Amino acid sequence: MAASIKHMALAVSLLGFVSFILGVIAENKKPASGTPIAVKDGVTCKFPSDPTVALGYLSVAFLIASTVVGYLSLFYPYQGKSVPQGVLFKHTTFLVFFNIALFSSGLAATLLLWPVITEQIHLSRKVHLDANYACPTAKTGLIGGGAFLSLDSCLFWLVALMLADNAREDHFEENKTFEDASVAI
Fold first, then answer.
1. Among the ranges given (21-25, 61-65, 84-88), the one the predictor scored with the smallest mean pLDDT
2. How many domains, the chain?
3. What's the CA gap between 117 and 168, in Å, rounded?
4. Within a domain: residue 185?
């Protein structure tokens, strides 16, 4: 069974939505801070068990999958008919939304990865020599912001896919009109 534009749009939407949901859950499950426990040489941090790091990495994985499927869906030869990339990039609106989709995907990945990696570092380095160390966690709000940007990038990939479909239809209509004119001559 060949993929259609509807199948690709559904895949991009589903992957982007799952990335969004996982990111929001990761943000909501993240503790505000750890509990400092005084020891002889400083502080040992005790953090509550939470799935933030795992959910954050899963959110990034689904974002990457959504981005890859979104990118490939633009250039896939539907019904065995491929369109040169130059034809698609000739359309200014497509070019703008393609670049916005790429940028928002990169920014979403940054906003998801930065706090997740920071959180993982905080969780792995629990012993500190400073007796006044407060046992912080990653900055609050960044994972949630990355989750919303993940959803936005998914929507931009869908808009780019619709614009690519329009450009594809225009390209094939122009070629059909040209072929009909050459047959009539």
1. 84-88
2. 1
3. 41
4. no
